[in-house]
Write the structure tokens for this entry.
Amino acid sequence: MVVIGGITRLTGSGLSITVWDPIMGAVPPLNEADWNVAFEQYKAIPEFTLKNQDMDLAGFKRIFFWEFLHRNWGRLMGLVFAIPFMIFWRKGLLKGWLLRRCWAILIGGGLVGALGWFMVASGLEKDPDVSHYRLAIHLCAAFAVFALVLWTVFDIRAGRMTFKGNGTAPAPWARALLVLLVVQIVWGAFTAGLDAGRIYNTWPLMNGSFMPENVRAFGDLVTDLSDHRDGVQFIHRNLAYVVALAFIVFAIVFRREASMEFVWIALLGGVVLQFVLGVLTLLTHVQLVLGVMHQMGALILLAVVLKALHRTGQRVTSMPA
């Protein structure tokens, strides 16, 4: 789902379906007349009138494919979860904390879909692009549901753990890594939403400067660093150094801790790979495969951090039915 979402974004396909129909939207246009209706709907939005006036029906079908696949993969995920959930629930196999957790996952997945439409709606009336804030909300919500599912898997396999640290040395620092990584993921979403990765495609400097004049060209520090492409890329690329250094130091310092066995290797290798992918994505003006791999890298890095958190969490001694 993350891969398809990344391709949908990078190919400019996200606004090709201009209506929200959770049920009948699963059926694609079935004939030429249906395709023409969908294309006419697309022609009415700013993305077509301001950016894609030369697009023909064949071009529209190409971008429609990715958005249609993205939405229907979401529907498929819902079914893959909801059907066994209902079966297990009726058989009495889900009780207590696990039942509550499954409800949270089910509701969270539906919320991610609704937030997807909330994001798309921001690009249908005035602006030719979706709000990068709404894109960040949608992405972070998807990552949060992924984290909830993964934490549940860890709980089932290794016993329930709370998010609170268990008092060992790595525990507070692992939680600090999570905060740092989440901030970087948010600015990564801002970078994607503003297409900020397609400017200043040099490294390590931004076209010869550490901080180009355009980074502070709009007069307000918060706006410059969160609303404009130059400032957003500046934060994302320089925060990457902080994230990489923090992960590397954590992995080296705590590599001998029992709770970090093998995890420290994954943290070290994961952050180095993600940093390299980020640089290559930038240098290639966000080449499609590299851009998608970089987004997946963030998700994988999140998974490894969650593993470290679970191993250093306080154990829940009672496992209610």
Notes: The radius of gyration is 22 Å. Residues 187 and 211 are 17 Å apart (CA to CA). The mean pLDDT is 94. The first strand starts at residue 161 and ends at 165.
